[in-house]
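Fold these two proteins, one after the other.
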Amino acid sequence: MPPMSVLPARSPLQRLSEQLARGELTPRAAAEEALLRANSNAGHNVYIALDAEKVRQEADALPRRFPPVGRPLLYGVPVSIKDCFDVAGFPTTLGSRYYAERNGVAREDSAVAARLRSQGAIIIGKSHLHPLAYGITGENPDYGDCAQPRDARQLTGGSSSGAAASVQEQSAAAAIGTDTGGSVRVPAALCGVSGYRASAELAQESGLWRGGVHLAPTFDTLGWLFEDLRDAPLLAEALFGLRAPHRPETRVRIGCVSEEFLHDCDAQVLAGLGDWKRKLSESGGTMIPADTGYWEEAQEIYAAITAHEAAAIHGAKTGGDFSHFPAPIAERLAWGASISADEIEQFRARHARFREHADSQLRQFDFFLAPCAALHELAVGTDHTESRRAILRYTTPLSLVGAPVVTLECASGAGVQLIAPRNSDARLLGYARAVGTRLA
């Protein structure tokens, strides 16, 4: 394989941007291609809301809005946005018909949508999500379960289900998702695409949650789903203004989740993790096993704080009547509302101790490696009650830390989390680009 410094063929997003910059492709033509591919899955529900004529008008206006010199990073690039952010002219559904009717049409763009437009992106539509962004499978009784465009037998995962599907079907070159307990990482992994979950503090301090609806503010963050690791830094710069190093370190120490912790992983997950260990070792990484037994308590802490905060948010909107939502979600919300102030403070104290321990461990390494889930697929029409636990066991520890994560894709759906210490996003993105460049 060539060294990381050698630049092979351009990534899909780079090629698209260059075609647009040279005038070989117009924004309108890019939009038309995206619209042709939209909603190609079995349920035709990658998007909850899409207005093709509005998309065309937006694309036609771009050359007038942005003169040829100094055009922004996402000029003419089709993107999707998760339907928990306001987009002017559409209701914000949160994947719930109750909210679709209650919220009415948004009068102005959320901060995220406004940022995308300022960067020249074409918003194709508002993407499907697990109701209230409170689930990991992409199942939705109101808008239909989200099956993968490439395989109607498999769910996308959630909660950023339509985001992953839009990238997979190529109706969007990149997709805005949110991640509380794994909602960018898991659908990226299961759909065989890349993902970037930003440090929670970066998302919280960016102001980009204006016009968006939280699930649990303690853990909520923003992120992208996209096709190629080499595009991660450009997307992070467009959204957050981050600048990743162009010549990242290649001789790095990478901590690895302990073998004992992997006892519940299926064969494809273990193979995917082993494959990425090999690739990163060949790229100059030294793999170092680490004790992650303490991760076992993460789910309990995460579940209580998330349920408590989500109950406060949705209780205020519904008068405490959670019957508008699917039974599993209603039960979690009712439980969250029942947690006393003293109890939640105990959970928050446990969270603080866990985060301190995990922060200290992550700082011992340059990066850290773990599966995204114990399983590599979620079959349509199957009871996934137990699947939730098998996934959150691997994602919630990093949610408690608030750490940045890039999902390293595997063709089998057994994606891997490449993790960095909290607020080390730029370094992580630079390394991910270098890995993607080497493997291209």
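Now the second one:
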Amino acid sequence: MKKLILLASAAVMMASFASCGGGGSKTSADAAVPEYKLMDLPMVDLASFPKDADGWITLFDGKTLNGWRGYNKEVPPAAWSVNDGALHIPFTGTGEAGAEDGGDLVFAHKFKNFEFEFEWKVDRGANSGVFILIQEVEGQPSYISSPEYQILDNDNHIDARLGENGNRQSASLYDMIPARPQNSKPHGEWNKGGILSYNGTIVHFQNDVKVLEYHLWTPKWKAMLDASKFSKEDWPLAYELLLNCGGPNKEGLIGLQDHGEAVWFRNIRIKVLD
């Protein structure tokens, strides 16, 4: 089935990715990828956000949702608020973006190479995530196109015991690479998270310790997708989008997940790298 791609150059890039991943001529499996449409929603001017002498840009002022909106929405979901200087979404029990007034929150600017830092805490048994390089796909969840930095109460959420070798615990690349060492703090306490993205190299940090590294657009990246819940057989559209993570320009949004459970984020900042 022919896919809808907003930018003509995307087709060329996708062909090259398939080639390096061991692909060749089109097969019936390629045709099974559903149609999709990339959204084109408003972005903010990063120059209007405060930057310190070291180049760190503050993305959340601790008071307002300035610069933030919903995934595939032009305004922030009503469920998100500022609570004691932190971005917060409460417990709803409705699962991933299930509440009518909920949904994932994204900062409305596309990033490519960057250092990203944030602090997070969760309620007992809570689950959330931080997404990078998000493509806004009409009618699809944010994680269909984006690697996820897992946010989790490891002691009380069942996801910590699922997956393989702890690859669904906090700071892990969700369902693919476990964070090692696993040094998260208990629910109700603040943790510091960090993500480095540079020309396809992605590094996760937790509480100032490097816990994992991976490399997009490589045979190893393809192999990890093949072995995950995002495999071509299990979820062909997610496989297509994640294989070509970041789209034709290798850039995307940063987002915070609404998983129906209480989570807080603060001290959110980014340094754009050349």
